[in-house]
């Protein structure tokens, strides 16, 4: 091993250490931001080292280096601009786009490596296996992530899109991709064969995500993130880059663990999620829709809610996607602070799949500077409902549907927040429309539940105004 190779290996090891430390710090909300910065620093170190090593050892052409500089500049500007301006409701879409970029870039690296190595006949399996797997996984990730982003953005329907023969077509495409991949492994190098793998994998990615409904969005985003990590790791093997191997393996492992946890939180297997069919996307009330059945529904106004909250001892706020859609995180934080200053104990009950991506509610509330120790996760929150005077549900639906405890419906067996165990329940929602699963929620007609029909932002602002009158009286 030459001195330069030793130095490069040592720097890559340092970068990998930063990746691991950063990932460890991301386990807790209070240290997640620092962990993110440390991991980003490790990646900057790895990228700069790779560029300098290539400059010293290979030289390159003006065209090659010009393309590299332009690509890096465009990517950096786009990434920074998007990350700084993205709305909280659009974070899942942005994550899906980043997944697509990562998977597509990894597949492109492998394809280019294959083209460069076609002078070997045949390619050794240590070279061809990572290349084929990278093209396969990266292409599925690229296409699937774009479709997922389209669904989340509303460009493509959030409902499960299943047409006659779709699953048979999915199997056929998968067989073509795998068959061409085997041919690429054991036959003479042929760019056209690898191109078949790429096209079939792209088609499979589209067909895999189209049948997935809105309720499964958090899991599929996490699954595609795991795919991105695997594709990056394969790219590292293809071009013999340790930093990519380590970073990709960490992302793949973390994404896989998170995917399994999300699936468990919904009581669904990853296989059933990939087959799709759960959830109907957003079910927002629309002008001119059929009149809703308000029989047995107890309607409240802002003053009614304010009285309950002002005279309560323990309040649990249950955030859902409606809070994110209305961008009402600052209003709910203001309400909580107002109650806390009045001596009311306030906590947030967080369901792991509330919203459209893992940790969506945690990120949303953190943006409004809600203290991390006020956010209770599922088990801890359910223990707190027994002593809760008022549970304020803001834009959540399926994650607190008591029908999950009964068999034979779309959410059967799904772990839920036991909101119905609170002494009193207030649901702030625009309408009685069902959530992602497309079924009614008996919590809304429970005698102890009062419905406050309003947009979350305006409704919370009205409640804050009303509470101020009572706490200052």
Automatic annotation (TrEMBL):
Catalytic function, reaction form: NAD(+) + NADPH + H(+)(in) = NADH + NADP(+) + H(+)(out)
GO cellular component: plasma membrane
InterPro entries cross-referenced by the UniProt entry: DHS-like_NAD/FAD-binding_dom, NADH_DH_b, PNTB-like
Assigned EC number: 7.1.1.1
Major location category of this protein: membrane
Membrane-topology descriptor: Multi-pass membrane protein
GO molecular function: NADP binding; proton-translocating NAD(P)+ transhydrogenase activity
Gene3D superfamilies: TPP-binding domain
Pfam family, one: PNTB
Annotated localization: Cell inner membrane
Ranges annotated as spanning the membrane: 6-25, 37-56, 62-81, 93-115, 127-148, 168-186, 192-212, 219-239, 245-263
Domain NADP transhydrogenase beta-like per the UniProt entry, residue ranges: 10-465
Sorted UniProt keywords: Cell inner membrane, Cell membrane, Membrane, NAD, NADP, Translocase, Transmembrane, Transmembrane helix
Family recorded in the similarity comment: Belongs to the PNT beta subunit family.
Physiological role: The transhydrogenation between NADH and NADP is coupled to respiration and ATP hydrolysis and functions as a proton pump across the membrane.
PANTHER family xrefs: NAD(P) TRANSHYDROGENASE SUBUNIT BETA (PTHR44758)
Name of the molecule in the record: NAD(P) transhydrogenase subunit beta
């Amino acid at each position: 091993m030459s001195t330069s190779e030793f130095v490069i290996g040592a720097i890559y090891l340092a970068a990998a250490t930063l990746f691991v430390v950063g990932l460890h710090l991301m386990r807790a909300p209070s240290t997640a931001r620092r962990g993110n910065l440390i991991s980003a620093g490790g990646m900057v170190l790895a990228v700069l080292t790779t560029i300098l090593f290539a400059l010293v050892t290979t030289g390159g052409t003006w065209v090659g280096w010009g393309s590299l500089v332009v690509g890096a500049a465009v990517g950096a500007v786009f990434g920074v601009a998007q990350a700084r301006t993205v709305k909280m409701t659009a974070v899942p879409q942005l994550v899906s786009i980043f997944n697509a970029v990562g998977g597509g870039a990894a597949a492109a690296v492998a394809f280019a490596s294959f083209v460069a190595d076609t002078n070997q006949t045949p390619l050794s399996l240590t070279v061809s296996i990572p290349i084929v797997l990278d093209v396969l996984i990266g292409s599925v990730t690229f296409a699937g992530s774009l479709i997922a982003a389209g669904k989340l953005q509303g460009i493509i329907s959030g409902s499960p899109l299943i047409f006659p023969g779709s699953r048979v077509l999915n199997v056929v495409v998968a067989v073509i991709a795998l068959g061409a991949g085997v041919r690429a492994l054991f036959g003479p190098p042929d760019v056209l064969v690898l191109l078949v793998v790429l096209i079939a994998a792209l088609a499979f990615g589209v067909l895999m995500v189209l049948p997935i409904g809105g309720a499964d969005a958090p899991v599929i985003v996490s699954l595609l993130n795991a795919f991105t990590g695997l594709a990056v790791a394969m790219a590292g093997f293809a071009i013999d880059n340790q930093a990519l191997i380590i970073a990709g393996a960490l992302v793949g492992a973390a994404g896989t663990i998170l995917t399994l946890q999300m699936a468990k939180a919904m009581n669904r297997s990853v296989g059933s999620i990939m087959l799709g069919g759960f959830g109907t996307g957003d079910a927002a009330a629309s002008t001119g829709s059929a009149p809703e059945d308000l029989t047995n529904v107890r309607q409240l106004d802002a003053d009614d809610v304010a009285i309950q909250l002002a005279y309560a001892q323990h309040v649990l706020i249950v955030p859902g996607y409606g809070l994110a859609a209305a961008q009402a995180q600052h209003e709910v934080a203001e309400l909580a602070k107002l109650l806390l200053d009045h001596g009311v104990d306030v906590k947030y009950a967080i369901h792991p799949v509330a919203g459209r991506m893992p940790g969506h509610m945690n990120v949303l509330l953190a943006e409004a500077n809600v203290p991390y120790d006020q956010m209770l996760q599922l088990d801890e929150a359910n223990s707190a409902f027994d002593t809760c005077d008022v549970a304020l549900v803001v834009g959540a639906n399926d994650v607190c549907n008591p029908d999950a405890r009964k068999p034979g419906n779309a959410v059967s067996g799904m772990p839920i927040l036991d909101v119905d165990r609170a002494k009193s329940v207030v649901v702030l929602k625009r309408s009685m429309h069902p959530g992602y699963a497309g079924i009614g929620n008996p919590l809304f007609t429970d005698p102890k539940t009062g419905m406050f029909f309003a947009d979350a932002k305006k409704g919370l602002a009205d409640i804050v105004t009303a509470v101020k009158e009572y706490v200052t009286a």
